[in-house]
Amino acid sequence: MRIGVVTFPGSLDDRDALRAVRLAGGEGVSLWHGDHDLKDVDAVILPGGFSYGDYLRCGAIARFAPVMTEVVAAAQGGMPVLGICNGFQILCESHLLPGALIRNDHRTFICRDQVLEVENADTAWTRAYSAGQHITIPLKNGEGGFVADAATLDRLEGEGQVVFRYVGGNPNGSLRDIAGITNERGNVVGLMPHPEHAVEDLCGPGTDGLGFFVSAVQAFTAA
Amino acid sequence: MARIIVDVMPKPEILDPQGKAVHGALPRLGFEGVTDVRQGKRFELEVASADAATLAEVEQIAGTLLSNPVIEDFTVRVEG
């Protein structure tokens, strides 16, 4: 099971994502933003950070990076793709996921351990969890407010495409407390909090984030 | 040479925290008469000529890269 992690100029959490993949039993493969090459990976992670300095809008320029041509095509073909924080912003800018992320309503950067409720445990990245389960993973963002028009929000909720909701207070003004969503097929998932920072007891709030990577790895080892 | 201006603004229904921050600073400076502030972006594109084909291309640029249609509106005009 090879899981690629894309490094853009300004990515921060690509190393942690690769490490999380390894801890889950997968093979982490570094992908470069400037290459039209996914190196035969089985899944792709777009990591957190500040790609292209967050210039223009978060994720707006990364969306047009060469490697994204292949990522978008693979995602549309059913490959599991996970976008974390800046990666979530890139997925929304790429229209692989609906909605957009805007500046936090309280205008300040927030960094804290965040409780999430898993609402959809049937996606490529959440099968190791159970619906209704609460997990605690770090959240750190300045532009994490999820917005979409009411019709889109109704559709996301009606079709079970809300994967995570914030529990214990909304940290950034996200509409309907939405922390993460998936596409109709369930192979593309994006969320603002950082599961890759909660994979070892030594660092972070525990190992609740490991399930993301275990989900993807198990999907392929079982197949 | 011609200059084409693209103005990008957050949609009216989208929260604009930056505009709110600017608005909140005004009373501290003694300006009391402003009831709201919305903050957007202005792009100046230099082109050889502002003909119909170029304007159509700029519309496309504005809709795909300069703005995100989910949260922003844009206008395109020729300066001068």
Structural notes for this entry:
The complex is a heterodimer of chains A (223) and B (80). Chain A has a single domain, classed as Rossmann fold (3-Layer(aba) Sandwich), CATH 3.40.50.880. In chain A, 23% of the residues lie in helices and 26% in strands. Chain A contains 5 helices and 11 strands. Chain B has 80 residues and is of the alpha+beta class. Chain B has one domain (2-78): Phosphoribosylformylglycinamidine synthase subunit PurS (Mth169, Chain: A), CATH 3.30.1280. Chain B has helices spanning 17-25, 52-66; strands at residues 2-10, 41-47, 72-78. The A-B interface holds A 56-57, 60, 64, 92-93, 98-100, 102-107, 145, 147-149, 173 and B 10, 13-15, 17-18, 20-21, 65-66, 68, 70-71.
Fold blueprint:
The complex is a heterodimer of chains A (223) and B (80).
Chain A: E1 2-7, H1 14-23, E2 27-32, E3 43-46, H2 66-76, E4 81-84, H3 86-93, E5 100-102, E6 110-118, E7 134-141, E8 145-147, H4 150-158, E9 162-167, E10 178-182, E11 188-191, H5 210-222
Parallel strand pairs in A: 1-2, 1-3, 3-4, 4-11
Antiparallel strand pairs in A: 5-8, 6-7, 6-9, 9-10, 10-11
Chain B: E1 2-10, H1 17-25, E2 41-47, H2 52-66, E3 72-78
Antiparallel strand pairs in B: 1-2, 1-3
Features:
heterodimer; A: 223 residues; alpha/beta; Rossmann fold; 9-stranded mixed sheet; two-stranded antiparallel sheet; 5 helices; 11 strands; 26% strand; B: 80 residues; alpha+beta; Mth169, Chain: A; 3-stranded antiparallel sheet; 3 strands; elongated
